[in-house]
Amino acid sequence: MTRDNIERLTAELKENYTDTVTAKDGELILVRLPLVHFPAGCQPSWASAMAVLDIAKPKPDFYVKVVPSVRGAPPQHGTAVVGGDSWCTFSYNLRWDEEHTAVQFVEGMLRRFA
Amino acid sequence: MSNPVEVRIPQHLWGPLWDEVRRFGAYEPVVFGLVSHSETSRRTLLLVQEIVIPPGSAFVRNTGHGAKWSGEYNIALLNQALERRLGILIFHYHPSTGRVGMSMDDADSARQLLPTFQMVAPGRPHGSVVLGDTSAAGLILLPSASLLVDNLRLRFFSDTLIRTLPEPEASTDDLQVHCRQPLVDGKLSRASLRGAVVVVVGLSGGGTQVATQLAGLGVGEIIGIDSQRVTRDNLVATDEFGWADILLRRRKTDSVKSKIWWINRQVRFTAVDALVPEKAAIEALKRADIIVGCVNNLNARADLQEIAWRYCIPYVDIGLGLHPLDPSDGLSEVGAISGNVFVAVPGGACLWCTGFLTQRKLELEAGGADRSYLRANCSRGHEHRSAAYVASFNAVLAGLAVGDVLQLILGYAPGLATRKQYDALCGTVSEVLVEKSQECPRCASVLAAGDPVWE
After folding, report:
1. Chain B interface mutation, best of A30, A81, A89, highest count of B Cβ atoms under 10 Å
2. Facing residue for B372 by CB, picked from A78, A85, A86
3. What pLDDT sits at residue B186?
4. What does pTM read for this prediction?
5. In chain B, fewer beta carbons within 10 Å around the N or the C end?
């Protein structure tokens, strides 16, 4: 992603998700979204999330604090250290490039749990 | 009351800092440290990421005691800190082998400068630190605080030892015994071991033996991290578990806790039934003076390396592998049984610098997928593996790791090998020469990074 696009995506996330905060971690930009909603049928129905924007990668990495149960069973997931904290990671091949919007990215990633 | 503050200085920065503050010249030398920070449950860590040595032209004539630098230089320094989202520590030196303290001038200047720094960069701590030969003192202004904190200690890493100032008060006799015979059970050595917190990650073949040896040495607190219960496989990998552990389906942490109680009741064992990098494991790791990793996969090693570097904690890693002559043949003879001990001291070589960890290796381990598949992939691999009689080999690695922990705490030997390789078929241990890579991206981005500042 280009620096300009990283700036644009960060600003967009701050604008669209209430109380979103950002931090610089080395070369990475961390964007913490305190509240994202999972698709209907997930338990819990919401969690906090984190997007990590890296100039060396074509799209952001996405993490959630809690992986929800979908129809009673949690999908396969892992745990990762991001900015010194523990976050849940999951695999989902979202078709997205940096010309798309940040909201499309976040909401698209959350469709993994639909 | 706020937590005590501990300033940590990585190995590669300590030498230049120490040389500069003691330099004799026309003005009192100062060195600026750009710092991140982290709050742990017991202390606030200030992690020096970079040092800035001001040029002679930055200093202005001062009628009083101490150094004075120009407003122009102050602004340039603040801009540098602000751009990096870091705080500023001012280091200077008072020649003394006893306890040093901030002079009246030092304290006045700190009271004047630190709030100004805080106004410009409010998210990070700022402070002024005076270094002596065996002690340190200072005043720190923490983020969002208005009062200065003086409850401070300083930790720096040499290539062989962790040194913490102020050093414990001791009589001349005790000091002499400690300097000449650090391995003798003297007052100072005992105090150093009792004051240490060592986290052992993975309580199987190697980790159990590390934990019990550390208990025997009298390490103050051992934190054991493992989420599993004892299984039959573990019995041939270590002598620390027994049949009753399997019968009772005991957690590994519970079993090790009782074993340690029998060895040394003065040692506190804290059990963390979690996997790295789950929250409870990370919180425990942040409390460590030394991390000993006894894990069986590279992704966990990458996580431990990241935590160790981020919070400037020495990391001792051990691992053992049985390598078949033909990996594709389930009945192949063993071609090699090799073990590794890697000691990563903050500011020295890390597991990434030396190619021990690479992105490609991590992906391969996760089966080509991302790490969300790792757990499933590792347990699939485990199903096909038989338990191997490796208790004695694990004991060698555990002994080497505990020797390195002892060296880091007591400094009994003139050197510390960063990487040692154990060939169990020949029964030999040899040093593998490794060097810190100046281009290592992990060292550049993670070392002393602390907690992020959210804006």
Report:
1. A81
2. A78
3. 85
4. 0.94
5. N
